[in-house]
Amino acid sequence: MTDAAASPAISLPESDEHWKRNLFVCLFGSFTTIIAMTLLLPFLPLYVEELGVKDHAAIVQWSGIAYGATFFAAAFVAPIWGRLGDLYGRKLMLVRAAIGMTIAISLMGMAQTVWQLVALRLFVGLAGGYASGSMVLVAAQTPKERSAWALGTLSAGIMAGNLVGPLIGGLLPQLIGIRMTFMLAGGLIFIAFLATLFLIRETKRPGKRKQAAGKGGIGGLTNKGPVVAMLVTGMLLMFANMSIEPIITVYVAQLVSDQSNVTFVAGLVMSAAALGSVLSASRLGKLADRIGYWPVIIGTLAIAAVLLIPQAFVTESWQLIALRFLMGLALGGLLPCITAVIRHNVPDSAREAFSGLRSRRNMSGRSPGRWPAASSAGISACRPCLSAPAC
């Protein structure tokens, strides 16, 4: 047998051997990084107060600044990391994100001033992107006939992280303190870093670097209207939704009588929206397959807008939990459809660039030629990337 004939026989089993291991390492890493990024939400205002901010209005303001700093930084660097991933490999981007987040989140537990906290949140935005990078790597390395299953599995881990993170953040600070909670989160991500470094095997694809260096971005689109509309819609939606999250704990404190349960109830409020999205994503995805993306986008956008208004007038915490859950049901259908519209209007050569433009809150991406079909399975797999903060 010649060397040329032997080479394919060796490479195919090697690919089969590694893609499942890559998937489960990425699943663990994405799950832990999402938890680490979302667990601070219930206690962020309390930590800001612990760092010396005493005025109520200032606590709200600094909580919003610290929370938004990550997404502000990520919006600038996400396209850069996506392009570098194409050029030099996605595993390298995962290793970079994991070690960067390990350092930043651990140092958050050592912050002495609110300025230091904001600076570290900025650094997380600059260095992060593990979950989005893992989506790209899994899509690129998985056999085409198994890509929908693999992306769905990875999406389930990301959604679980969004669900579990705020619950842990509502419970752990009462048991081990806020600073030790950050340290524990940093330790989990460090384990993910080690697993990524030593266990993931990325198969290099000939010609990929040349393809990545080609023309991309919005200038290469023939039909810019739907893409621009979806980018603007996603940005406005995330602005409306995320402007509320940093102050949910402060709001919950006005609704509960037992102040020792504030962080726990706040965690429930935040997890309720994630749970709603988990339950609705695939069902609304199937509906969009039948009737089209635009009716679902318009309908769910209207519902989400209507559900935001009564949240300002609740008098009990359970009312806020219920409204956030219902809004999560709407968002679970809206965000995947936005991604699907962009996916259908962006050519292969530009998709990696647009994986960065869909940030932030989205830091997702799909490898050219490895996007799942626009079925309900494929659409539901897109959803968590749009909801996971600075992951």
Mean pLDDT, all residues? 76
The parts where pLDDT drops under 50 for at least 5 residues are 1-15, 359-391
Largest sheet data? none
Shape: globular
- Cα-to-Cα separation, first versus last residue: 47 Å
Gyration radius, in Å:
21 Å
Structure description:
By secondary structure, this protein is mainly α. The protein has one domain (11-202, 222-387): Up-down Bundle (Growth Hormone, Chain: A), CATH 1.20.1250.20. Helices cover 76% and strands 0% of the residues. The protein is built from 16 helices and no strands. The protein starts with a helix and ends with a helix. Residues 1-15 and 359-391 have low confidence and may be disordered.
In short:
The protein has 391 residues and is mostly helical. It has one domain (11-202, 222-387): Growth Hormone, Chain: A, CATH 1.20.1250.
Keywords:
391 residues, mainly alpha, Growth Hormone, Chain: A, 16 helices, 0% strand, disordered N terminus
Topology readout:
Elements: H1 3-38, H2 44-50, H3 56-88, H4 90-108, H5 114-127, H6 130-141, H7 147-176, H8 178-199, H9 208-212, H10 224-242, H11 248-253, H12 262-291, H13 293-308, H14 317-345, H15 351-357, H16 376-387
